Structure formats: structure tokens, C-alpha cells
TrEMBL record:
Keywords: 4Fe-4S, Carbohydrate metabolism, Gluconate utilization, Iron, Iron-sulfur, Lyase, Metal-binding. It comes from Luteibacter pinisoli. This is Phosphogluconate dehydratase. [4Fe-4S] cluster binds at C156, C223. InterPro entries: 6-phosphgluc_deHydtase, Dihydro-acid_dehy_C, DiOHA_6PGluconate_deHydtase_CS, ILV_EDD_C, ILV_EDD_N, IlvD/EDD_N. It catalyses: 6-phospho-D-gluconate = 2-dehydro-3-deoxy-6-phospho-D-gluconate + H2O. Residues 409-601 form the Dihydroxy-acid/6-phosphogluconate dehydratase C-terminal domain. GO terms for cellular component: cytosol.
Length: 604
């Protein structure tokens, strides 16, 4: 299939502007490969420390053998439902490696916080920066130079991007990500949303809300809505660092266990000692990054990846920009409807054909690069296949059906839910921002209304409770950016603004904070850059200013006289209360060093 010309153009543009940095990156990982296992170049004291706690067979292999030693980087904890299944993975991986004549060691752990727990709390102001901390922890874990390959056990929001950024610093290693799968479906997402809105309106009790939430988040595995965690899983598969069909297989099934075993086998088959050597830094190239952006658009994925994919690309020497997302969005159709963009969850998506159907459709339409390296080898065709266990218990892959198993959840490119992707860029005198439109109603794509300015998200709910928001308005929530307070997600705004929209009011949100993968039906211009704390134009907006948010044309404008606008002095806010307590004082250097949102909002 001939590639779509826009896909070709965007990829070439990225490659050209990235030539120098990508060349330097590849030279770095080629030099890091060296000759054979690095542990054999360690001093005797170094090496003895490295295998001191191993079992006798592993000691013998590590001191005398030449088989690969796999690093396990784990984000296990049993507070995160998605990561709880990882508890037994290291022993399984070690056993599988031994059976294949190799060894594996837990090289280190990385912190793993849950945005669902910290939402609206002070801890959320550490969340985005935890990505870069995880990258650093990954690098520390691998710095012992004992490994020829690596397996990364991570699922959720900042954890996978952080691990991948760290892993790319060791891009000479054969590497793969190992998912654990989603929890079983709970109550229907629309039912949960209704209870949340009822609680926001004072028509449901806290006990009723907690019961609805507990029936939704009720077991081990990833939360089943299509937020950042599940967008991460989609990305790892479509960029070739998951096994085909492994992203959304539930935890603790025989098939899940077989996929984990097979991932160990693939890393060993592609390590630097073998003829099939495929280092991670060669898998994550310009084409793989573009494939990731395409997958994000085709599934209506998380807006957080307007930050994370940019930062991941930078770690591989690739200059990805929001303009590239915007250009691809115009030609990539929306093929999936998963909550909050529809009624279904990721289990329904998986049952309807899942990633194999999606990739098959995009490849046939010329909307994915097939000439890429993956952990399976060369090309994406193996990712058209669905894994299954035969009667003999052997893992095999079979071609996916050309027909969706549920057209209400997953469709072909011949009949998409939308002709374009779910993410767009906005520009104007407020700066640059992004908006997720995959679930915004057609009659809400353009909102022109007076601004009401807030510097704390809690003040929005307080104004609602006072009865001050029963009208058309655009909530401008400022001083939420990375330099101000770590760019927290602002999910607490969603029930209130959704309720007002349902009452018939024309409402929208403009913020230099985040809304993540749960951005829904209310138009939200997020990640505004430059941010208010950096003196960005968003800090000039005053309550009563008329704002026009036009997702059709990509415009975000404050409709005031140009001379007046340019003469305004940006507001300042004392953020000291947000810089201490709950560990926030430890992250001062992150806030001070963070780059802008359109560069990834990170410190590297």
C-alpha cells in the first residue's frame, strides 16, 4: 500500500530537522554496544558484587558464561491496580530466562504514583515531574553495566513515558515493555459519569459516589477507561516494543503468562550477542514516532502524549512538534470510540479486534509505516495478528478478522467515526494550546463567551456552589503550568463543567494545566504555552474579556483591542503554598528547569 502523502511529508520533515541530533544519538548507542557482554569487562570485585545474591546456577552463568543477562526494571507496587499483577513477574522472568539458558535480575525499581488517587490533591503537583524522576531512576538501575537486554514492567500515566525516556539512554540494549492488562469491566462508564455529575449538583451523597467509583475500579489491572495508561499500552504496541496483541490481554490468564514468557524470549533473541540484534534506539526512530502519533489520533488517545511523545522523541534525538500532530490529525480517521469518547471500555475494544484490527486497517490505508524495526523483527505485518494458545498450550498468532467485532466501538477506515483525528492545535493571541475534540459535540466546536478567571481549580467549584456559573462563560484557569506548580491534571473541573453544558450553557476551559486522557465533551484548550508563570499572554486575561475558541479553524483569541491587549501587564500570583508540603519542596529544581509544554514540559 502506498503511504499517504501527508504521512510521508511529516516524517521527512521530522527526519530533516532531526538529522544532527539523531545522528549523534545513534553514534552514542553504537559506541555503547561495544564488544559483547559488558559485565566481562568489570573488575572481579565489581562482578562479584553483581552476582553475590544470585542462586548458584545464575552465579555460574554470570561469572563464566556468555549468555545474556536481562535487567528487570519494575514499577511494582500493590496500591496501583495496574501494577499489582507485577508482583510475581520477576520470578517468572527469571525462570523463563534460565530455561532459555540466560539470566535475569531485578536491576531496580521506579516510583509509580496514581493520578486517580492524587487527583485534585497536593500530590498531583508531583505527577508530571515523576516522569523525569522515573527516567533518572531507570538510568540509575541500568548503570551497573551488567546487562545485555532489559524488560520494563510499567503501565500507567507517567511511568511508561519515564521508563522509555530512561531506556533510550541505554538504547543499545535489546528491550521490551511487558504489560499486565486491564481489570475486568465494572459498571458502565456512563452510569459512573451520571453519579459524578449528580454529586457535583448536590443530588447524590458521598456514599453513593464512593459506591459507584468502587464498582468501577474494583480489581487488579489497568483502569478500563481510555486514559493515559491505556494510551501508553496502545503506543507501546503500535511503536513495536510490546508483543503483538499483548497490550489488553487481562492479568493472570494462561495467555497473559505465555505472552510474558515470549517477551523474554524475544529480548534474548535480539540481544547484542545475537545475529538478530535489534536495539531499542533503532526501534524508536522517526517512523515509529509518527506511527505513535497516528495511533493516538485513530483511537482518540490521551492529550498527555502531546507532552510525553515529544519528550520521548527528544530522548531518541528526534524533534517532534505539535505542528506534526496537527498535520497528521487532518488525515487520520478516528476508528475507536472508547470512554470518555464513547460508551465502551478497553475490554470491549480488545474484544472487537483491538490493536490487531486497528493496525491492519491503518496499514492497508497507507497510514502507518511498515518499514520499521520492532521486537518481532522488521515490519509491522506481524502486528496484524492476534495471539492465542493452541490445544497444546503453545502460543501462536493468527490473522485478525477484516470485520470489526463491534462497530459501535471499532470501525474500519471505510466507515470511521470521524474523518479526522481527535487532537488539534490552537493558536492565537493567548499562545499555543491543544484540544481533544473526539467527543466534543458538533455544536460546541466553537464557543464565544466572556472569560471568568481563576487561579485555583477549587475556586471553580466554589463559584458553582454559590450559583455564579449558571450562564455562558469560558473558565480560564491559570498558573497551573510546569513552572508554576508542576502542571497538574484538572479532572475536578470535568463534572462541574459537564453539568453546566448539559443545562444548555455554552462553556469551555482555557488552561496552562492538563486534562489528560479523560478530556471529554466540554471544549478544553489545554497546555497553553507560554504559561502564566513565564509571563505568557494567558496571564493578561481579565474576567469579562470575550474569548473565541474555534476548534474548527484552530483559533484561540481574546477579543479585545490589540493596543489594550499588548499594554496589559501579566498578573502575578504568590504560589508559595503550592511549593511546600507533600514533598513539593524537593521538586523546586524541576519547576525551575522545566521547558515549555510544547517541548515536552520536562527537565532534559
Amino acid at each position: 500500500m502506498t503511504l499517504h502523502p501527508v504521512l510521508v511529508e511529516v516524517t521527512q520533515r521530522i527526519a530533516e530537522r532531526s538529522h544532527a541530533s539523531r545522528t549523534a544519538y545513534l553514534a552514542k548507542i553504537d559506541a555503547a554496544r561495544g564488544k559483547g557482554a559488558k559485565r566481562h569487562h568489570l573488575s572481579c570485585g565489581n562482578l562479584a558484587h553483581g552476582f553475590a545474591a544470585s542462586c548458584e546456577s545464575d552465579k555460574d552463568a554470570l561469572r563464566n558464561g556468555h549468555a545474556a543477562n536481562i535487567a528487570i526494571i519494575t514499577a511494582y507496587n500493590d496500591m496501583l491496580s495496574a501494577h499489582q499483577p507485577y508482583e510475581g513477574y520477576p520470578e517468572r522472568i527469571r525462570s523463563t530466562a534460565r530455561r532459555l539458558g540466560a539470566t535475569a535480575q531485578v536491576a531496580g525499581g521506579v516510583p509509580a504514583m496514581c493520578d486517580g488517587v492524587t487527583q485534585g490533591r497536593p500530590g498531583m503537583e508531583l505527577s508530571l515531574f515523576s516522569r523525569d524522576l522515573i527516567a533518572m531512576a531507570t538510568a540509575v538501575s541500568l548503570s551497573h553495566d551488567m546487562y545485555e537486554g532489559a524488560l520494563y514492567l510499567g503501565i500507567c500515566d507517567k511511568i511508561v513515558p519515564g521508563m522509555l525516556i530512561g531506556a533510550l539512554s541505554f538504547g543499545h540494549l535489546a528491550s521490551a515493555f511487558v504489560p499486565s492488562g486491564p481489570m475486568p469491566s465494572g459498571i458502565p462508564n456512563e452510569e459512573k459519569s451520571k453519579v459524578r455529575q449528580a454529586f457535583a449538583a448536590g443530588k447524590a451523597t458521598r456514599a453513593e459516589l464512593l459506591e459507584a467509583e468502587a464498582r468501577s475500579y474494583h480489581g487488579a489491572g489497568t483502569c478500563t477507561f481510555y486514559g493515559t495508561a491505556n494510551s501508553n499500552q496502545m503506543l507501546m504496541e503500535i511503536m513495536g516494543v510490546h508483543l503483538p496483541g499483548s497490550s489488553f490481554e487481562p492479568p493472570d490468564t494462561p495467555l497473559r503468562n505465555a505472552l510474558t514468557d515470549a517477551t523474554v524470549e524475544r529480548v534474548l533473541a535480539t540481544d547484542c550477542n545475537g545475529e538478530q540484534y535489534i536495539p531499542l534506539g533503532r526501534i524508536i526512530d522517526e517512523r515509529a514516532i509518527v506511527n505513535g502519533v497516528v495511533g493516538l489520533h485513530a483511537t482518540g488517545g490521551s492529550t498527555n502524549h502531546l507532552l510525553h511523545l515529544v519528550a520521548i522523541a527528544r530522548a531518541a534525538g528526534i524533534d517532534l512538534r505539535w505542528d506534526d500532530f496537527d498535520a497528521l490529525s487532518s488525515v487520520v480517521p478516528l476508528l475507536a470510540r472508547v470512554y470518555p469518547n464513547g460508551y465502551a471500555d478497553v475490554n470491549h475494544f480488545h474484544d472487537a479486534g483491538g490493536m490487531a484490527f486497528l493496525i491492519d486497517q491503518l496499514l492497508d490505508a497507507g497510514l502507518l509505516h511498515n518499514d520499521v524495526h520492532t521486537i518481532m523483527g522488521y515490519g509491522m505485518d506481524t502486528y496484524r495478528n492476534v495471539p492465542a494458545l493452541g490445544d497444546d498450550g503453545v502460543l501462536a498468532w493468527h490473522p485478525v478478522s477484516k470485520e470489526s467485532g463491534n462497530r459501535g466501538v471499532l470501525r474500519s477506515t471505510a466507515e470511521p467515526f470521524r474523518q479526522d483525528g481527535g487532537l488539534r492545535m490552537l493558536k492565537g493571541n493567548v499562545g499555543r494550546s491543544v484540544i481533544k475534540v473526539s467527543s466534543v459535540p458538533d455544536d460546541r466546536m466553537v464557543i464565544e463567551a466572556p472569560a471568568i478567571v481563576f487561579d485555583e481549580q477549587d475556586d471553580v467549584k466554589a463559584a458553582f456552589d454559590r450559583g455564579e456559573l449558571n450562564r455562558d462563560f469560558i473558565a480560564v484557569v491559570r498558573f497551573q503550568g510546569p513552572r508554576a506548580r508542576g502542571m497538574p491534571e484538572l479532572h475536578k473541573l470535568t463534572p462541574t463543567l459537564s453539568l453546566l453544558q448539559d443545562r444548555g450553557h455554552r462553556v469551555a476551559l482555557v488552561t496552562d494545566g492538563r486534562m489528560s486522557g479523560a478530556s471529554g465533551r466540554v471544549p478544553a484548550a489545554i497546555h497553553v504555552t507560554p504559561e502564566a508563570e513565564a509571563g505568557g499572554p494567558i496571564a493578561r486575561i481579565r474576567t469579562g474579556d470575550l474569548i473565541r475558541l474555534d476548534a474548527n479553524t484552530g483559533a484561540l483569541e481574546v477579543l479585545v483591542d490589540a493596543d489594550e491587549w499588548n499594554s496589559r501587564v501579566p498578573d502575578n500570583v504568590d504560589l508559595g503554598v503550592h511549593h511546600t508540603g507533600m514533598g513539593r519542596e524537593l521538586f523546586a529544581m524541576f519547576r525551575q528547569s522545566s521547558v515549555a509544554a510544547d517541548l515536552g514540559a520536562g527537565v532534559f
